[in-house]
Write a structure and sequence with these properties.
Blueprint: H1 6-11, H2 27-32, H3 37-61, H4 70-92, H5 94-100, H6 111-121, H7 126-156, E1 158-159, E2 162-163, H8 178-196, H9 213-216
């Protein structure tokens, strides 16, 4: 197996395989909580914590967890760390807890976290899993922060709650509403595709590219 550089593991989730702008994962919180930049930072931090914690534990236990029950085990671990994040935010940042609402406990079913558990942490050592989690967590946070910043500036005329001259009095409310989320996301996605010339992560098709091929016995 070809050895991957540590820097590549850390940076690919930020740029080449950005979970939101390239892999199109985690779109539910991306569109729902990005009305304010502060909310994006909170959601990004909570998701990164769960992703990092689950990656560490799963990489440590990857040789112990049986293949047949690995997915339920991953979900239990992810749900446990999500509850910890939820309780911490509720205790120390209650206004953020209210703003994130139902999307905070829904981190449990965030596709990014389960995908990294299955595709990476289940196959690699703890250090590499930590780097992978930090990279994908940072990529997710930066992506939703960019979308949230645009929506808040145009929709509310402010950034992190600070009023911006002229825009605060001439804001476009639609950007604070659900349609605005889709509009901004589509524009940011188009810009990323333009800058990268449409070169995102390329996945192999068929059993060869499936992480579950070995477990299901259909690997070819």
């Amino acid at each position: 197996m070809e050895k991957v550089k540590k820097t590549d593991i850390l940076t690919r989730g930020i740029i080449r395989e950005n979970p939101v702008l390239v892999l199109l994962l985690g779109l539910c919180p991306t569109l729902a909580v990005t009305t304010q930049a502060e909310n994006a930072i909170g959601m990004g931090a909570a998701t990164t914590f769960v992703l990092l914690s689950s990656n560490i534990v799963i990489s440590l236990l990857r040789k112990i967890i049986p293949d047949k029950v690995r997915i339920p085990c991953y979900i239990v671990l992810i749900a446990s760390f999500t509850v910890l994040a939820k309780m911490a935010i509720e205790a120390y940042a209650y206004s953020l807890y209210q703003a994130l609402g139902i999307y905070l406990p829904l981190i449990t079913v965030n596709c990014i976290i389960l995908a990294r558990a299955e595709m990476f942490a289940n196959r690699n050592n703890t250090l590499d899993s930590i780097l992978d989690a930090l990279g994908f967590g940072a990529g997710f946070t930066l992506a939703i922060l960019a979308i949230a910043s645009i929506r808040e500036i145009l929709g509310s005329g402010s950034w992190f709650g600070m009023a911006i001259p002229w825009l605060s009095e001439n804001n476009a409310l639609i950007f604070s509403l659900p349609p605005g989320g889709f509009i901004v996301f589509a524009c940011v996605l188009a810009l990323v595709n333009k800058l990268t010339k449409g070169k995102g992560a390329r996945n192999e098709s068929g059993c060869k590219g499936c992480p579950s091929a070995k477990a299901c016995g259909k690997e070819v």
